[in-house]
């Protein structure tokens, strides 16, 4: 099935254990090499959606396929293998603060490591080299032996991207990757993601808060409202009228350069 | 505001029903306690009740009529209509009408009537039991019946879609949970019933406490002249026993060190099993979690001195019994502290490591362990410090260490060597305390 999309979501729904319905009937296809931006008001279900894609959250309805494999039912080693191929970066970077930058990047290789050596910190030479290479790609090779919490926010997010690179992912999920960063740093971080997308053909699914960033980086934009998909199209299709349907009448566009 | 209150989820109803029951229970216990104190003091004043044997001697008004205790739930039920009884405040419930506004006086009065009737119905079997037995408290069967009735009324609140109990339904009130942040309008304390009840409870407690502990402040002053010669002997240490004392002190410190060091790995393993955020993802995990918690809580609640007694039966009297006692208590105490630091970690890195496809052990190793190393070390040092202090007295019950010597000289009435021992104990404990606080500063 060469023409099947990399990620294929059908009728996805999520009801949290407390009864709150966060997602309803989401359909979504993501091809390799696409940069899909998810926008929507706070609480519209963006995080829930991307977290379902690598099963950090178990969806309650619908199906997700990744490269033809059923995501919603895999368990154990298969689930871990899937997560290896679908990397993720977070708003709060989520690095292991007390470990070095290098070790943080190396954790991206845990899935293919034997358990015992990985627990005592015996990494293969090939993995070490790959980790240094990943750090070089994000311009941080000179920080390899710093403690992760000694780095600035933007640098930490680049380390997180290097960790993701280490997984050799076919898709990368990003849950508000730049929401804690200033505008200039945001651009540099998103540029790294775009490089992944264009040079390696990695599919990117990113939640972004700023429409201007969505327009600049997205090849396609989907908008959520109250857990439903209410818009899907090219970034240029987001007219003022669409904008107001997504964010409500009161909203004004905030520009960020 | 719409008048119809929304139906509640099952979880909310369960929460509400329990909170309401807990409020009544707490208030009943307070009333019972006050009754018991009054009865105890009355018996004491009448002179027919000593410090001991008061339960058997049937003195005080409760001694003759224990069934008076059954009045407590009735008083509690009436107390509930204030909407701000101590139990209600503790359980964060409040009384509102159907529209959610504070319930008016007529509704409250109605609620009081219905609640009293309900309480009487619940207590009926117990009262019948009293009548049949003519004395004392009703037997088990009658109490069981009362308990079942109470549970049945509790279940009513559970079954109602809006989580109302019978008194609520009948009087058109509702008990709701007070939002955590809501500030309560407070009158000055002398206008509040709860404050006066609090004052009463404190006064009664101290009156009873003085009787039970036989504490007479006078004694402290009167006996000074007799005690002084003995006390002064403590301050003339006998230096001839310094050698053996040092030996024993070294034994004591090592005893504490071994206990702490051996406890560390066990507590480490146990702490993951007893951490809610690690274990409660699967059913089997929850079972292990509950068992681990239970083990830690039970073991911890038995003091090392008692463990020495247990282990000296098992192994033999001596330092090994003391070491094992400190060891097992430390495993539980450290395990609990460790578990709590695991529960308070940042879940972000754990999630991130999971998202790389790492397996459970790898997630523990890279997501959790780095975050808990500093608190673990700090707790361990602190524990060693506590263990040294504990080890100095384990000898009192045959657990080795300096305490052996201490108790021997005390029995012989030889206060000069005793003074030497106390001096060394003070020095070592003080030094440990200082070192451990320095070490913990570094680790923080
Ligand atoms: N664990 C949970 N249990 C119950 N409800 C939840 C849980 N997590 C999220 N929700 C609810 O689901 C809805 C969607 O949450 P989600 O985090 O996906 O929103 P979001 O679009 O990412 O918002 P934001 O932009 O603020 O991050 C919210 O209303 C939230 O309160
Ligand atoms: Mg979110």
CATH fold group of the largest domain in chain B: MetI-like fold
| CATH topology heading of the domain at 7-93 and 169-253 in chain A | Rossmann fold
Beta strand % of chain A: 15-25%
Instruction: Specify the CATH architecture of the largest domain in chain B.
Output: Orthogonal Bundle
User: What fraction strand of chain B?
Assistant: under 5%
Instruction: Please summarize the sheet with the most strands of chain B.
Output: 2 strands, antiparallel
Can you describe this structure?
- The complex is a heterodimer of chains A (257) and B (444).
- Chain A is of the alpha/beta class and 257 residues long.
- Chain A has a domain of 172 residues: P-loop containing nucleotide triphosphate hydrolases (Rossmann fold).
- Chain A is built from 9 helices and 10 strands.
- A 6-stranded mixed sheet of chain A has the order 6-7-8-3-9-10, with helices on both faces. Chain A has a 4-stranded antiparallel sheet with strand order 2-1-4-5, covered by helices on one side.
- In chain A, a hairpin with a 2-residue loop joins strand 4 and strand 5.
- In chain A, helix 5 packs across helix 6 and helix 6 packs parallel to helix 7.
- The longest helix of chain A has 18 residues.
- The radius of gyration of chain A is 18 Å and the shape is globular.
- The relative contact order of chain A is 0.18.
- Chain B has 19 helices and 2 strands.
- By secondary structure, chain B is an all-alpha fold.
- In chain B, helix 5 runs antiparallel to helix 6, helix 13 crosses helix 15 and helix 18 runs antiparallel to helix 19.
- Chain B has 2 domains: 189 residues, no CATH class; 211 residues, MetI-like (MetI-like fold, Orthogonal Bundle), CATH 1.10.3720.
- A two-stranded antiparallel sheet of chain B has the order 1-2.
- Chains A and B meet through helix 2, helix 4 and helix 6 of A and helix 16 and helix 17 of B.
- Adenosine-5'-triphosphate binds next to helix 1 of chain A.
